[in-house]
Amino acid sequence: MTVLEASPFVRACRGLPGPHTPVWFMRQAGRSLPEYRKIRAGVGMLESCRRPDLVTEITLQPVRRHGVDAAILFSDIVVPVAAAGIDLDIVAGTGPVVAEPIRSAPDLERLRPITPDDVDFVAESVRLLVAELGSTPLIGFAGAPFTLASYLIEGGPSRTYLKTKAMMYAQPDLWHALLGRLSEITLTFLRTQVDAGVSAVQLFDSWAGALSEADYRQYVLPHSAAVLSGLAGAGVPRIHFGVGTAVLLEAMGEAGADVVGVDWRTPLDVATKRLGPEKAVQGNLDPAILFAGWETVERETRRVLAQGAAAPGHVFNLGHGVMPETDPEILTRLVALVHEVSGRS
Ligand code: CP3
């Protein structure tokens, strides 16, 4: 068994026992870290994602500082979409902004398939990181077809997903053609990362919680399932995450991942009852709790660990990304607490 297969993170993803519950944080690399703000000064977000020297340094920063059990590649969900020919930018404080949104069949032609060469900077970053990380696994990731489509159709972030849902209901053929293209792009992007050496992948369907279960099953699940099943033989655990997905948990599990990411609204023991004995879970401390004082952090962390123990495997995480205002010292203490409370030594 390789050191990475034996790591607490990969073992928990596979539902196997380990020395302690592994912990990492979504958005662990980013504005909560002064060393990140320093290195990013004057460099655009997309540009930094395309520079393997910066990607490597930024990805390693939270591993060095917090001692987390996994690194996550520094990139963004829109990187493969930009490589596919879409003119977009990532605007600080806003998120991805698309110059010309996709709203019609001719618009769809601007979204080309990608080849591994289109994202060679990602493969290079992964190779550099795997060499540096040693026994710490690297998580690769991509946005899921629905969440990517929401940015392409709306043109930027949205609270209501009005244009996205309007296309879904009124132009189902165009909708499925768009999500089909996005699932192919996503699969190529993830396979490139697996071939370069990542130890696990996470599919971010951050905004799927905007949908009913019936609509998720009809309009989204087949496309996310195509991505996840396309990686079934890749030999790495697949994590599937969304926010506000309480009504979607069973359906998200059926899409085929090994681990389901759960936000703070659903206790992990309840999630496990609904997902069944085959799925490991990841989560789910509310990122806002990190602003409530250490006593609360400690109490809530113990509760999450106790509820996570019901699952065949538990990867401790927040229920969504680290907020930029978070005190990084609390995150370091939290990693030590998770290791101490869950340690079997
Ligand atoms: O540490 C990590 O988790 C890896 C890095 C990572 C980023 N984006 C870096 C980033 C990951 C995994 C993502 C995924 C991502 N990007 C998602 C899914 C995860 C989630 O949060 O639900 C989504 C929806 C996006 C789209 C996006 N990109 C948003 C909403 C934003 C925030 C806008 C802002 O400035 O508040 C971005 C920009 C972005 N991606 C930043 C980082 C560190 C901030 C930009 C900066 O630091 O200048």
The description of the largest β-sheet is:
7 strands, parallel
- Gyration radius over CA: 19 Å
Which class of secondary structure composition applies to the elements? alpha/beta
Number of strands: 9
Tally of helical runs = 15
Q: Count the domains.
A: 1
Quick one: overall form?
globular
CATH topology: TIM Barrel
Task: Give helix and strand order, one letter per element, not per position.
Answer: HHHHEHEEHHEHHHEHEHEHEHEH
Small molecules bound in the structure, each named once? coproporphyrinogen III
Overview of the molecule:
The strands form 2 sheets. Strands 1-4-5-6-7-8-9 form a 7-stranded parallel beta sheet. The chain has a two-stranded antiparallel sheet with strand order 2-3. The radius of gyration is 19 Å and the shape is globular. The chain has 345 residues and is an alpha/beta fold. Helices cover 47% and strands 11% of the residues. It has a single domain (8-342), classed as TIM Barrel (Alpha-Beta Barrel), CATH 3.20.20.210. Strand 5, helix 11 and strand 6 form a beta-alpha-beta unit.
Keywords:
alpha/beta, binds coproporphyrinogen III, 15 helices, TIM Barrel, 345 residues, 7-stranded parallel beta sheet
Annotate the secondary structure layout.
Layout: H1 8-13, H2 34-40, H3 45-49, H4 52-66, E1 71-72, H5 79-83, E2 88-91, E3 95-98, H6 105-108, H7 120-133, E4 138-143, H8 145-154, H9 162-170, H10 172-196, E5 200-204, H11 213-230, E6 238-241, H12 249-254, E7 259-261, H13 268-275, E8 280-285, H14 294-308, E9 314-318, H15 328-342
Parallel strand pairs: 1-4, 4-5, 5-6, 6-7, 7-8, 8-9
Antiparallel strand pairs: 2-3
Bound molecules: coproporphyrinogen III.
Binding site for substrate: 27-31, 76, 151, 206, 320
Domain Uroporphyrinogen decarboxylase (URO-D): 22-31, 139-155
EC number: 4.1.1.37
